[in-house]
Prior knowledge:
This protein is of the alpha/beta class.
Amino acid sequence: MQITVDDIQKFGINDFLGKDFECKCGKIHSVKLDNLIIEEGAIEKLPMVLKNFGYKNVFLVADNNTYDAAGREVEKILISAGFFIEKLIYERAYELVPDEVAIGEFLVSYNKKMEVILTVGSGVLNDISKYMSFMLDIPSIVVATAPSMDGYASSISALMLKDTKISVQSTPPKAIIGDIDILRKAPMDMILAGFGDMLGKYSALRDWKLANIVIGEYYCDVVKNMIELSVNRCAAEVNLLAKRDGDAVGHLMEGLMIVGIAMSFVGNSRPASGAEHHMSHFWELSFLMEGRKAIPHGIKVGIATFIINNIANKFIEMDIDFENIGDDLKILDRDKWKNEINRVYKKAAPEILSLNDGNIDDMVEDRKSRQIVIRDNWEDIVHVIREFPDADKIQMLLKRAGIPIRPQDVGIDREMVQDAILYAKELRQKYTILQLLGDMGLLKYFAYMDGLY
Ligand SMILES: [Zn+2]
Ligand SMILES: [Zn+2]
């Protein structure tokens, strides 16, 4: 089936499933997700979904919170429909951590007769179940309990092994059930986190197009539009979302799912994550190393989106002299850079250094050639940055949702913001506006600028 930007406007979320789309970008887009139900009372359809797959023996996985929120009800529905249930309910006084203990508990509770893992939860539980689904080679289905993140359908899980956060290969669920009656009762900070993560797509999509212009990275307009339409709808409904309105919560969940589908279409996280996510990951790592309680992912992404959009807006207003770009770019002082990486990344520094291990002369040469591309495409770059909401609009949306706007409101101090602007880009090999500013010798200028946030 052919797909174009115009088609996308008419698509409902289920139209994206179970097909191969021949796209004008040259790729065939498809997603490995069989079933997605987002509606009020969706858990009533669970027996039918399980029957269609032919499963009878169900291993239900939840924690004490999600069992209360939805697990008990799901169990009741399935038992009265004649299913055989065994369950693992993680009992935790604080947050569940996806570590060796949680994986061990899963293994000792699991019995080989079980045909499917039924996860009742959101981020962490989903991470554990998708990983176990991969390791034990049995399918999983998830009943989502919060519209808090875009990773429900991703094939990567984030685990905490040996006290370090790592990404591992996982098997995405075969079906995702989003019952709006359950989702709208989720803790408000989880709903807001989902909204913040969605707002971050404005920055991620801009970075994707910039990478397309500057380094010729693959880009698809259809996928970009899929995501943009969803974010725009969530942004338009922000006041309703703050009141837990069912339609707004449902559309947020749909938006997060569409982002997940978009990532499958492209084969990586490019359309969903850019500089705003790198800054968020950087802060997450800093908090982890200092033993501080984590801030919800989407809240950090929302704050970073505001800062990075403010930088982008100010950047295109500058009068840039392309003939005299910063002297520090002519020689890269590798030792100085290494010291800085050791200072900000501490025990994670060796990994970051090896990820960025390039020949220094190549780096200088590459940078020079990118500066020429940036100069020659300056009008397009300005146009791309203007195309997305500016910092004022992002600030207004965060305020209306009730998300803190200033990093200091959530305990991220000035130095952590400066270091994120300067060194968060080293976390991933991905071209974003932070790399672009680095190419232009402007990172320090923005990192130490007053009145940015
Ligand atoms: Zn495409
Ligand atoms: Zn995210």
